[in-house]
Amino acid sequence: MTAANDLDLLNRLLVARTTMQVEAIISSLPVQSLDMYQWDYRDKRIGTWLPGHLHWVPVGRDRGNGGRIKLAGEPTNPIAERLVNGMEAIVELARLEELQKDPDAKAPATPRDAAFRYFGLPRLDSLDRLDQAERSSAQERVLEIRKRLFVRLDHDNSTKQFAVTVRDRGMGQVPALMHETLLSLGQTDKAEKPYLIGVFGQGGSSAYSASEYSVILTRRAAAIRQPGEDAGVGWTIVRQVVPANRRDPYYAYLAEGPEGEAPRFDAIVADAAGFDQGSHFAHVKYDFGGSAAAISHLLYQALNHVLFNPILPYDLFALKDKPEQMLGTAYRLARQVKGADPRVALNKSFRMQPVV
To answer: Where in the sequence is the domain holding 228, given as residue range(s)?
Structure first.
């Protein structure tokens, strides 16, 4: 493909929010049919890899990934997991920048220690307890950090489809490692990094089961890119595969290499599209379950509840272009307590009960 065609494809991937848009992209690509090539269990492959074509490879390169990916309970939980991953990517970027300056720098002991060391942020539920000067300074930092992470809810009126996009401006990944990191299952180095939140490398992938398609793009931040390291964008599309005459559906992504390597765009194309760093996850035709009414309000409440007191703030664009500041329910409760009558212990009354 030419650079112009690559730029057009990258721009289409970045704005894809409906199944029609994603399927139009797939149909324009040289994708090998599942009838011609398919992963089976362990090292077995059905068919022959066709060079120059994209193939569907199981997420995590695990043919039996269906049950693991469908572990999520509430449909908002995978979105919260994606946001946590975004927070970790932002923290890890700061940590890697620190190590470039001082290779012997001791790691933060906890995620909150990292938030304070790298961004000067205390617990978000303590912001209103700071004195005026400290609070003003902290709020400025909150405003700046919110620009690095957002979740966006879109709705297409013609198809009645929802799409959920989580975008972070964290460390990002090089294309050659995308299949071993963002597209892996249960493989992580977080256990040896106490300043990160997750451990098992599993939760965010549950969003695949709530979506018909997922569009993923990632680019390593220039600040931590090593000499000679790929400055391009890795990308792929994830979907569920239901094999004919079998009862074991699985989730697969488009790969350009037989070991599962993801396709990529050159740095010049990424620059032209304005995709500078970080990761982009767009989950298309997202199933929130039940009624579609008041989803934007539900998402606001659910994310504040699940991420009760997040280490970093983020923005929520819920069917509108103006973002909601997301600091967690703990912050909202702390504000209510601050404004309450100090003589009142509870803001809820109870009927008198007999003592027996």
So the answer is: 3-117+146-339
Instruction: Measure the CA dihedral 315/318/323/328, to 10°.
Output: -40
Beta strands at 250-255 and 233-241: parallel, antiparallel or unpaired = antiparallel
Cβ burial of 282 (10 Å; 0-12, 13-18, 19+) is buried
In this prediction, residue 113 carries a pLDDT of 97
CATH number at residue 303: 3.30.565.10
Name the pTM for this structure.
0.91
Q: Which residues pair with 38 in a beta bridge?
A: 46
Is residue 156 pLDDT above 80, yes or no? yes
Please state which of the ranges 179-188, 221-230, 347-356 shows the lowest mean pLDDT. 347-356
The answer to whether residue 128 sits within a structural domain is no
The total number of structural domains that make up the chain: 1
Close Cβ partners of 35 (under 8 Å, ≥ 6 residues apart): 47
pLDDT at 348: 46
pLDDT on residue 349: 41
Tokens of 69: 């990916």
| Domain annotation covers residue 135 | no
Q: How far apart are CA 227 and CA 216, in angstroms?
A: 25
Task: Quote the distance between the C-alpha of residue 297 and its chain's center.
Answer: 20
